[in-house]
Amino acid sequence: MAVLSLTDEQVVQLVKQLPPQSKQRVLADLTSERDQWWQTAAREGEQDMRRLAAARGLDWDAMSEAEREPFVDDLLHGS
Fold first, then answer.
1. CA-to-CA distance for 9 and 16, rounded, in angstroms?
2. pTM exceeding 0.70
3. How many domains does the chain have?
4. Is residue 2 part of a domain?
């Protein structure tokens, strides 16, 4: 099977030429892919927060939102 190499702009122009129903399918497929990525990133981020809290003797799941905020702020801006 031959592989066709296109620039991003060429792909966009090709999608713009599609009929409305086909454009909607492309958008739905891309949106689904983005949503899957976002769910994975959020899940991994939460696992990272649990690990970082545990390394400091804290239980991320037992922490309230009020306790989590300064913890995250310290991670981002602290020493």
1. 11
2. no
3. 1
4. no
